Amino acid sequence: MADQEALMETAHAMADAARAAILPHFRRGGLGTISKEVDSYDPVTVADRAAEAAMRAVLAEQRPDDAILGEEEGTQEGTSGLTWVLDPIDGTRGFISGTPTWGVLIALCDASGPIYAIIDQPYIGERFEGGFGRALVAGPLGEAALGVEPAATLAEATLFTTFPEVGSLAERRAFDAVRDRVQLTRYGCDCYAYAMLAAGQIDLVIEAGLQSYDIAAPVALIQAAGGVITNWEGGPVHGGGRVIAASSSALHAEAMALVKGALNV
């Protein structure tokens, strides 16, 4: 327990450092935005870089033997058997657009995958954490337990994805198969959608084309809140790829069957 407390303290210190690095840039000019890709728009800003540097500085001081995988600075090897997977701003497109649906992702992983995570929304002041027996959100309304609240049927469920095009044409067809069966579909919330699933507000998140730093933290949070999160084949998804997150095993199974059926058309 002492080790777990120390690890959680480090995670919160990183989230605090990222908040301090990011907030001076939000809804301000001079973001220095560039695209990391030539053929598509994949933006990165000075805030992304500053936040990851701030989190790495915390780790250098408190956990120098741990490995790091970060979106902006890549991999740093470690010797402890633990890896911190960092996305300094998940949802940079939302960040540069001024919407408060981006977040800082911090996941702690061992050889089995994510074991603890934080999703932090600095502007709203909400911090979601899951793992080590905890599933909590702290924010403007105080602190509360997290827990999924499944819809009774798929027809009553709420579905989220970040991009309506999802991925390839086949992946879009698979997403649409679920979209056509649910009550409500919403778009564009990036990591905040997973936080809302853990908070019991929505029922499904379906996405494709994710990297490990996009999904490792949501995996730990959703599992801690009692949800189900896998790839589209039902296997582990913390390494990235295509994800189905659901508020119950029944909704997950039904959504996965629809996705698989559409992919095999």
Automatic annotation (TrEMBL):
Mg(2+) 1 binds at residues 71, 87, 89, 214. InterPro entries: Inositol_monoP_metal-BS, Inositol_monoP_superfamily, Inositol_monophosphatase-like, Inositol_monophosphatase_CS. Pfam families: Inositol_P. Its cofactor is Mg(2+). The keyword Signal does not apply. GO terms for molecular function: 3'(2'),5'-bisphosphate nucleotidase activity; metal ion binding. GO terms for biological process: L-histidine biosynthetic process; phosphatidylinositol phosphate biosynthetic process. Mg(2+) 2 binds at residue 90. Signal peptide: none annotated. It comes from the Bacteria. Its EC number is 3.1.3.7. It is an enzyme of class 3 (hydrolase). Keywords: Hydrolase, Magnesium, Metal-binding. CDD domains: Bacterial_IMPase_like_1 (cd01641). Belongs to the inositol monophosphatase superfamily. This is 3'(2'),5'-bisphosphate nucleotidase.
